[in-house]
Write a structure and sequence with these properties.
By secondary structure, this protein is α/β, with parallel strands linked by helices. The chain is built from 9 helices and 9 strands. Helices cover about 40% and strands about 20% of the residues.
Length: about 230
């Protein structure tokens, strides 16, 4: 027997159709991409090695990571570069659903391969001034609905230092730019926590956040990112 919610959803899809961002095939309103296109996306394989820091090529690109574990969905290339840039800088929120489908799939793949899992997920914060300018945190928009609410926090980590946009800087300047940018006032003693961000280029921002979390007592810090884009790759 069809439930009322299923009937309502079917009626909504009929009057307000949604289309796959890749092939324009009609899809459910809850989706952003059809199953066929989702399966064709060039995602990182997390079933063989969930901790990407153990992959030789990634370890070579990111040799100075302070965090203990890295999980990423894909390389920063088509279509992810377009989706993320449009969401981040133009607030094109219809790309959010497609990104969430990717994130949920990659989270499930990595969790199935991990004996341990973070107790707390921390969305990488924006400085207050930048948040007011943009009006939203694009990382929270995509990842917030993909993580259990009781493990997610937006207040544990603070970005006290206003920094320049990392995209305009060299690797050395990126490290200096975010040095001391974060502070954590909560006691994280003995806990395994995760920082969540959209794009990792040198790891400088995630490293700076990791330092703050380990100073607060975190035993392990994991990094979860949507995409990897090594500087100069």
């Amino acid at each position: 027997m069809t439930s009322l919610s299923e009937c309502t959803s079917a009626v909504f899809d009929w009057f307000f159709p949604s289309f796959c961002t890749q092939c324009q095939t009609p899809i459910k309103a809850s989706q952003g991409i059809c199953d066929c296109c989702l399966n064709d996306l060039p995602l990182l394989d997390l079933t063989a090695q969930a901790n990407l820091l153990y992959r030789p090529d990634i370890a070579e690109f990111f040799p100075d990571c302070q965090f203990d574990h890295l999980i990423a969905c894909a390389w920063y290339r088509a279509p992810f570069d377009h989706w993320l840039s449009q969401l981040k800088f133009s607030n094109q929120i219809f790309y959010k659903k497609a990104l969430q489908q990717v994130i949920k799939q990659q989270l499930a793949n990595s969790k199935a391969c991990c004996e341990q899992w973070p107790e707390l997920f921390i969305i990488l914060p924006l400085h207050n001034e930048r948040f007011l300018q943009r009006g939203y945190n694009q990382v929270a928009q995509t990842w917030g609905a993909c993580l259990p609410a009781n493990t997610l926090t937006l207040s544990c980590l603070k970005r006290d230092k206003k920094t320049k946009a990392q995209s305009t800087l060299s690797k050395a300047k990126r490290v200096k730019n975010v040095q001391g940018a974060f502070v954590c006032h909560e006691d994280l003693s003995g806990r395994t926590v995760a920082i969540v961000d959209d794009v990792m280029t040198t790891g400088a921002t995630l490293n700076a956040a990791t330092v703050a979390l380990k100073e607060a007592g975190a035993e392990q810090v994991w990094a979860f990112v949507t995409c990897l884009t090594p500087l100069g790759r």
